[in-house]
Amino acid sequence: MTPLEFHTLATPKAAPDLRHQLRDHGYDVRLCATELLTNVIDHLGDGTPVTVRVIGTAPHCGRTRIEVTDPDPRALPVLLSATVSEESGRGLALVDALAECWGVVQGPDCKTVWCELRN
């Protein structure tokens, strides 16, 4: 798998653009990548610069790693339990349900939220 790196501003238009860039990947990869991108829009604001990376792990692992890096190391994602009547709050729950694992790497001036999905 050829690594993909996508630099963009986190905007509603960026989500379909990202899905198009990932058209050769499975549905779960496209969904998790756009959910992580959408979290940046929702929690840091429209127009935040992001870098999205999609990387195949070592062949014996059989996983795809998705990373979304943004410039705010303090705004950490939180896994919520959305109620039936709430219209938002399910993005990270979807990632948690689909991914083998996920987490956050904080740097001094950025953070990367990542997840790995089995191929």
In short:
This protein is an alpha+beta fold and 119 residues long.
Structural class: alpha+beta
Instruction: Describe the global form.
Output: globular
| Biggest beta sheet summary | 5 strands, antiparallel
- Ranges with pLDDT <50 over ≥5 residues? none
Q: Which percent range describes the beta-strand content?
A: 25-35%
Task: Name the helix and strand elements from N-terminus to C-terminus, one letter apiece.
Answer: EHHEEHEE
How are the strands ordered across the major sheet? 1-2-3-5-4
Q: How many separate helices?
A: 3
Radius of gyration from the alpha-carbon trace, in angstroms: 14 Å
The span between the termini is 11 Å
Domain Histidine kinase/HSP90-like ATPase: 27-114
GO molecular function, one term: ATP binding
InterPro entries: Anti-sigma-factor_SerPK, HATPase_C_sf, HATPase_dom
Protein name: ATP-binding protein
Q: What does this molecule look like?
A:
With 119 residues, this protein is an alpha+beta fold. 29% of the residues lie in helices and 32% in strands. It contains three helices and five strands; from the N terminus they run βααββαββ. It has a five-stranded antiparallel beta sheet with strand order 1-2-3-5-4, with helices on one face. Strand 2 and strand 3 form a beta hairpin. Helix 1 runs antiparallel to helix 2. The longest helix has 18 residues. The termini are close together. The model has no long low-confidence stretch (mean pLDDT 88). One of its GO terms (molecular function) is ATP binding. InterPro entries: Anti-sigma-factor_SerPK (IPR050267), HATPase_C_sf (IPR036890), HATPase_dom (IPR003594). This is ATP-binding protein. Pfam families: HATPase_c_2. Keywords: ATP-binding, Kinase, Nucleotide-binding, Serine/threonine-protein kinase, Transferase.
